[in-house]
Design a protein that fits this description.
By secondary structure, the chain is mainly alpha-helical. It has four helices and no strands. It has one domain: lambda repressor-like DNA-binding domains (434 Repressor (Amino-terminal Domain)). About 55% of the residues lie in helices and about 0% in strands. The radius of gyration is 11 Å and the shape is globular.
C-alpha cells in the first residue's frame, strides 16, 4: 500500500475517505485515485482538501527532497 501525504494526513485526522470525498464534493473514486497516486489533484481540489482537513496545502504535497 502506497501512503501519500494526503492519505497520511487523512489518517492522522481520523477522517474516513467517504466522508472527506463528500466534504470536498468530489467522487469517492476520484479521491481514491488521488490518494493512491494514480491521479493528480486539480488546484481547486487541493485547496478544498486542505481546507477540509484544516492543514496548509503544502502539507498535502509530496516531499520534493532529492
Amino acid at each position: 500500500m502506497r501512503l501519500t501525504s494526503l492519505k497520511l494526513c487523512r489518517f492522522a485526522h481520523g477522517v474516513m475517505q467517504t466522508v472527506l470525498a463528500k466534504r470536498v464534493d468530489i467522487p469517492f473514486s476520484r479521491l481514491s485515485a488521488i490518494e493512491n497516486g494514480d491521479a493528480d489533484p486539480l488546484p481547486d481540489e487541493l485547496a478544498r482538501l486542505a481546507a477540509a482537513l484544516n492543514v496548509p496545502i503544502k502539507e498535502l504535497l509530496p516531499d520534493q527532497a532529492a
